[in-house]
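FW: tagging you since you asked about this chain on Friday. Here's the raw sequence from the shared folder, copied in full. Didn't touch anything.
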Amino acid sequence: MRLASGASAANEGTVDSLQPTRYLGPLDALNFSPVAVLAIDHTLSLHDALVRARAAQGLERLRKSGATILIASHDIELLKAMCEEVWWIKDGKLEAKGDPKEVVDLWQRHVAGAHRAWGESVVSPLLPSMRRGDGRAQIVELHVFGENGQPASVIRSGETMRIRVSVKFESAVTDPVIGIMIRTRIGFEVFGTNTELEKLKLGPCMKGVTLRVTFTLPCNLCSQEYSVTAASHDPDGVWHDWMEDAVAFSVSDDRYTAGVANLRADVGFEVMPGK
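HL: got it, structure written out here
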């Protein structure tokens, strides 16, 4: 932005631009008076919705007067609403340019993939918000895995995920049941199941035995944060060990979906003849 507006000189090569030019940095006042080239370097990011709406009108007047407006921003909705062309610059090089929606879609797919890959480097520790039970068994492991079999704190929407619960029995238990519950960040229950519901009999289990139970399910969830609660209990509901919201994970996606369940609708239409 500084090079294009002439605010900084190139270390090598030349920059050809129209005159006069103006550069607005992140903390500069919004100045939309007539100019040939206006470079906006994250200047709108610190302003509220009202200021941004007024700025959009000012920029549109400048554009109609023939000005060239360059905007550097990470605000996707701003870019889609205001730009005729979007450039995606990655590691200092032009990765893609063109129609705002097409380039933004490419960028969002890249971000979702990068976020998912990063999630394998960060594994959530066991930090239950509440723990209770009679102590006949203890949950010693609770992990979320991606479809590649690696522990992950980020799961891609649509991929197969696995939740593994390991329970060590401190006393003999005739008929243990091990279950999980997935909740949103605000505590909304998304999905829960247990070995009894899935018709998997685990017992009897003797003292010292450790059971590792893996729940495999499609991650048909919308992009947001979730937690996993795990429990070992008797069929009548008496808990051996209950770990409330013990592990957190996030779901990433390359497009926006509303709600919690990502049902991946297949949409079609037909034109009806007029009467």
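FW: Residues 100-119 form the longest helix (20 residues).
HL: agreed, and The chain has four helices and 14 strands.
FW: great, closing this out.
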